[in-house]
Structures are given as structure tokens and as C-alpha cells.
Amino acid sequence: MKSIGIEDDLAVAVIDALTSHICVVDPAGIIVAVNQAWMQYTAHNSTGPDRDDVGINYLDVCRRSKGPASDEAQPFLEGIRAVLHGDKEFFQIEYECHSPKEMRWYLARVSPLRRRSGLKRIFGAVISHANITERKLVELEYAKLADTDPLTEVPNRRFFNAFAKRDMDRFFRFGQASSLLMVDLDNFKDINDTHGHAVGDEVLRRVAAVGNAMLRSGDLFARLGGEEFVCMLPRTDEWGAVMAAEKLRAAVERLSILSGARLIPVTVSIGVSSVTKTDRTVDSALRRADQALYRAKNDGRNCVRS
After folding, report:
1. Which residues contact 114 (CB under 8 A, 6 or more apart)?
2. CB 118 within 8 A of CB 101
3. Would you state the pLDDT for residue 119?
4. Choosing from 227, 228, 238, 246, which is the catalytic residue?
5. pLDDT at site 47
6. What is the pTM of this model?
7. How far apart are CA 286 and CA 278, in angstroms?
């Protein structure tokens, strides 16, 4: 452990054995000690000359932070100050610190440093950074599974509801147009009954792939359930949504899906609606899109109605 004024050999040995990156700061935020993991991380990630960071003001580092993890630098700075001033007994924060080669997340913890005699006066803080990347990757995978339809691998109703709420908030804040498409496969029960559920599943996957491929980066194509899909088009008025719906309808009609030697005709009916200022939730716009979809079914299917 590289340090200034730390002489407890046992404490040094224990701290150096830890894999977390640990430093000790004085009441002014000056780094007075770092462990081996801290020095190794610095040596591996620094592009300049070798340094150990002892003598650097950690608070100044947070103030000047740029690039990866800079978003959390200010709240981290405030947390360190709160612990040093005795306003908080403990502070922690998770942050991203990705490199060009790998995804990385860390958990930073700050604890006050007091004398063994039991005096309440704080004479510094211990700051640790633990690598939690493996845990975060697992969390992200579980979140993806929770938000994704397992058959078609497009977002599910749960994710759509969260996405739609954010888009509605944006609509009411900025007044930019937003539209919805309700997409329903035509005669899907006949496909299942005639060709079997395995073929029906393949039809759902292919239609989902077409819908997902045709979207802009800010749009969303999700499966609501059964043979029904929904598409949300932020910053799109009703006429633009009708054009997008017609493009999607034509692309599905061109699909070539075989069952044995037989070509299965696949079409969709689509209902279009736009969000209005009288809508309190996305459900109102969904109902209008569903009514338009019903008209498309009554008008012979394989068409778009708004």
C-alpha cells in the first residue's frame, strides 16, 4: 500500500489483499493512501506517466471529471463531502466506467475514518470502488428477458407500456406528434389449424422481423400477445403513420413462407391513430387504433385504416 503516515502493517496487508480499489482521503479530500488494486488499475488505465495518486485532491478530480462516469461525479463529490462533514455515516453510488474494449460498472462506497479511541471526530474517509460488472450484466440480461417476447424476440407489452409512457410525457412536454399502429395477422387461426402451431410460430417470427427491420431507430415494434402487434412512431403525424403502415403491410404481403411445398399467404390488417392533447394515457390512442383495425378487417383485410 502506497501511503503517507500509515504505519499499521496489519491494516496495510489486509487492505492490499482486497480486490476493490481503495484510497484514504484526509478531511480536505487529499488522497493519503491507496492500496495495490488502486495502483494496478491506475497503471493499466492511465495513458500518461505512472502515478499513484497520493497527494491528489479527490474532490478536485470529481469536479473536473469528463468522459466515462462523469454523470455521477457531482453526486459522488457531494456524497464524499457529506461523509467528511459528518452529515452522512455512509454513502454509495453505482456508476458506468466503460472502456473502448469492455463494458464496466463499479460500486463506490465512502465511509468515515475515526480514531480507535472512539472519538467522534472524523479525520478522513475510506473510499472503495468495487467492480460489479458481472452482476450488472446478469441484471441487464434478466431485464432484457422480462421486456422481450420469447418467441419473436421483439419487445413485449410490458416494455411497450413503459416506452409509451415516456413518449406520452414527451408529447405533452414538447407537443411533437406521435402515432400508433395496431397490427393484426389475417386468418391466423386458419394458418395454425391448417399447417400446425410450429408453422404459425414461424409466421409470427417472420412478421416481427419485418416490422422490426422497417422502423427508425426511435420507433418501437412490440408484440401485445397472440397474433397482435403494436408499433409506436414518435415524432410522426397521422399521415406519416399511414404511409409507414402501408409500407409494412406491403412488406408482409411479400413474405415467402413455406409449409412443405405449399406457399402460405400472409397478410396483416393495420389500424392507425395519432396521440391527441385530450389523451390522458396511451390507452385512448390504442382504442382508436383498435377501432381503425376493426374497420380494416371489415373492409376485407390486408389493408390500412385510420
Report:
1. 120, 121, 122, 123
2. no
3. 60
4. 227
5. 57
6. 0.61
7. 13
Whole-number Å distance between alpha carbons of 76 and 232 = 37
d(CA 22, CA 52): 12
- The CB density around residue 187, as the number of other CB atoms within 10 Å, is 15
Cα(242)–Cα(247) distance, integer angstroms: 9
What pLDDT band is residue 229 in, cutting at 50, 70 and 90? very high
Given a contact cutoff of 8 angstroms between Cβ atoms, the answer to whether 210 and 255 are in contact is: yes
Under a CB-based contact definition with an 8 Å cutoff, are residues 200 and 157 in contact? no
Residue where the block lists cell 406520452 = 168
112-129 pLDDT, tens digit per residue, is 988 766 567 888 999 999
pLDDT tens by residue, 284-303: 999 999 999 999 999 999 99
Within the chain, where are the H helices? 9-17, 36-45, 58-63, 73-84, 133-147, 157-174, 188-195, 197-213, 238-253, 282-298
Instruction: Read off the C-alpha cell for 108.
Output: 463506490
Chain centroid, CA 235 distance in Å: 21
For each of the domains in the chain, give its residue range(s) and CATH number, in order of start: 2-137 (3.30.450.20), 148-305 (3.30.70.270)
Which residue(s) pair with 127 in the sheet? 23, 110
In the predicted model, what is the mean pLDDT of residues 122-138? 88
Residue 5 has pLDDT above 60, yes or no: no
Laid out side by side, the sheet with 220-225 consists of 220-225, 228-234, 178-185, 268-274, 304-305
Q: How far is CA 161 from the centre of its chain?
A: 15
Q: For residue 230, which amino acid is it?
A: V
Cell numbers for 223: 408484440
Convert the pLDDT of each residue in 156-190 to its tens digit: 999 899 889 888 888 888 888 899 999 999 999 99
Q: Reply yes or no on whether 253 is catalytic.
A: no
In DSSP terms, 92 is beta-bridged to: 109
Across the range 116-144, mean pLDDT stands at 81
